[in-house]
């Protein structure tokens, strides 16, 4: 009975493990954004920025602390005092001051009244959150781009696999025809051998494609955060090929550019924080303490034991006015100016790079459209040539060489068409990226 239960459990485990995960592009993208480590970490950075804001805000709030101490003085310091205090004018008396035991407990409060660096820090912390929000958006777009590219590469590899399967089917039919003719003495053995050789080569090519598809699928699984052992099935879809509307996108919509803008803002606040070191600061301090002194441990002791308790308190204002810092603050400000100039150059360079990226994607897309149209016509023509050559061969009007050449031309035309579709989709993704609209792929 136990053996049967164990076998049943193993069976269900194997079945559940072998359950195929069907993926459309939309499914793959959503799964990646929910499970991929990069996307998760970017979201955690946004969440962590809220804690950074709270940390900076704490500098503007009261700082309260409790303190306590217990001190034992085995040897009291002797102080030289005038003898007048002890009825011995003209003499100096060495007398101990204080008690063997001292115990102090109290509370202190510090409140910043004016500190410009605190206000600058608050503004910088809020901008830091915006920086991480843009960075999270950029990370998501990068994940979407990688997954979309990998998805279409798997899709195209499978299309090529379908093409080789179709070629195998046609070649097998031809082999069967030649085999029948050979058995009836109407065909030569060399013709049958040539077709058998081609079938072996096609099967080898097919196995290479199968391995290629498996590796591409594993890459896709990694990019979306899916375990490599999970079998997947790409949902078949019709690739829509449409002309591109020739419109130049705004570079400022790109997350890459916005991220640099946020970095520039943070550098400005950093400069302000350095300038704030020239400003005076004002803070309020207050404390209240209770002290016990005596010849024995004060804790729990009373005046009858020679221990006396008293309280004391103080309230004050602390003003700090920087006068000279050895030009350290000036150096920090000048370094901040250099950093701002560098980020300005990065922004200019980014505009050029993003513009070049768009132009290259536009050229690639237009060239792919031309290639697709040409290859589509070529596939139709190659199919007609193959069909006619096959009929002619069956009727003895064409040689086997002509038939095999026609079949090779058809396979090549189909693969070229499929490759052109891949180039088109990859260029289309770049066009969508250049518009800052990669997330629209989630709605397709």
From TrEMBL:
It is found in: Cell outer membrane. Its main location: membrane. GO terms for molecular function: efflux transmembrane transporter activity; porin activity. One of its GO terms (cellular component) is efflux pump complex. Transmembrane segments: none annotated. InterPro entries: OMP_efflux, TolC-like. SUPFAM superfamilies: Outer membrane efflux proteins (OEP) (SSF56954). Keywords: Cell outer membrane, Membrane, Signal, Transmembrane, Transmembrane beta strand, Transport. Residues 1-18 form the signal peptide. Belongs to the outer membrane factor (OMF) (TC 1.B.17) family. PANTHER family: OUTER MEMBRANE PROTEIN TOLC. This is TolC family protein.
């Amino acid at each position: 009975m136990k053996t049967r239960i164990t076998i049943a459990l193993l069976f269900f485990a194997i079945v559940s493990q072998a359950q195929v995960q069907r993926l459309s592009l939309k499914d793959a993208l959503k799964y990646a954004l929910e499970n991929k480590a990069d996307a998760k970490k970017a979201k955690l950075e946004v969440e962590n920025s809220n804690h950074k804001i709270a940390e900076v805000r704490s500098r503007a709030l009261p700082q309260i602390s409790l303190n306590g101490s217990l001190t034992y003085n085995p040897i009291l310091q002797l102080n030289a005092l005038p003898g007048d205090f002890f009825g011995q004018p003209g003499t100096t008396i060495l007398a101990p001051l204080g008690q063997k035991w001292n115990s102090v407990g109290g509370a202190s409060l510090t409140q910043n009244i004016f500190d410009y660096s605190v206000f600058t820090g608050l503004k910088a912390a809020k901008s830091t959150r915006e920086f991480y929000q843009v960075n999270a958006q950029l990370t998501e777009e990068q994940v979407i781009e990688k997954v979309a590219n990998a998805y279409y590469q798997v899709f195209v590899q499978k299309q090529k696999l379908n093409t080789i399967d179709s070629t195998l089917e046609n070649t097998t039919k031809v082999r069967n025809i030649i085999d029948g003719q050979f058995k009836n003495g109407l065909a030569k053995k060399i013709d049958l051998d040539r077709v058998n050789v081609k079938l072996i080569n096609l099967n080898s090519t097919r196995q290479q494609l199968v391995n290629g598809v498996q590796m591409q699928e594993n890459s896709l699984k990694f990019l979306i955060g899916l375990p490599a052992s999970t079998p997947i099935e790409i949902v078949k879809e019709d690739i829509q090929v449409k002309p591109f509307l020739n419109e130049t996108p705004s570079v400022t919509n790109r997350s890459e550019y916005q991220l640099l803008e946020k970095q520039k803002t943070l550098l400005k606040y950093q400069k302000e924080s350095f300038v704030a070191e020239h400003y005076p600061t004002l803070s309020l301090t207050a404390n209240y303490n209770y002290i016990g002194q005596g010849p024995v441990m004060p804790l729990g002791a009373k005046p009858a034991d020679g221990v006396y308790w008293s309280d004391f308190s103080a309230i004050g204002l602390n003003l700090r006015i920087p006068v000279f810092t050895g030009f350290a603050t000036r150096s920090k400000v000048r370094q901040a100016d250099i950093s701002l100039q560098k980020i300005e150059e990065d922004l200019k360079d980014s505009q050029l790079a993003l513009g070049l990226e768009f132009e290259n994607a536009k050229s690639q897309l237009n060239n792919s459209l031309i290639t697709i149209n040409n290859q589509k016509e070529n596939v139709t023509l190659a199919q007609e040539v193959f069909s006619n050559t096959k009929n002619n061969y069956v009727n003895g009007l064409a040689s086997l060489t002509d038939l095999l050449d026609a079949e090779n031309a058809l396979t090549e035309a189909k693969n070229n068409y499929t490759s052109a579709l891949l180039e088109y989709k990859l260029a289309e993704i770049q066009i969508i990226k250049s518009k800052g609209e990669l997330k629209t792929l989630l709605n397709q």
